[in-house]
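User: I'm preparing a small set of examples for a lab meeting where we compare how different chains pack in three dimensions. I only have the primary sequence for this one, and I'd like the structure in token form so I can line it up with the others. Please keep the answer compact; I'll paste it straight into my notes.
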Amino acid sequence: MSSSDSIDAPADTPPHPEPTAASDIDPAIAEAVDGVANRFGVPGLEQMIAYADDALDDARAALDRLAEVVD
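Assistant: Understood. Below is the structure token output for the 71-residue chain.
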């Protein structure tokens, strides 16, 4: 597995990083978003964003739980 495939965040990353600039977007993420936009338009992007927001909340909560276990 390459380092870009890793699910572990680097140790020096803040717990809740700020969004990156558009130029810093991984090409796979850009392709996924563009694919949804092209196929489903605004409603699809709205659904994708809502789903991603829920997934982000879940991921942050899981990281917080892991941090509690480590501390």
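A couple of notes for your slides: The mean pLDDT is 82. The radius of gyration is 15 Å.

User: Perfect, thanks.
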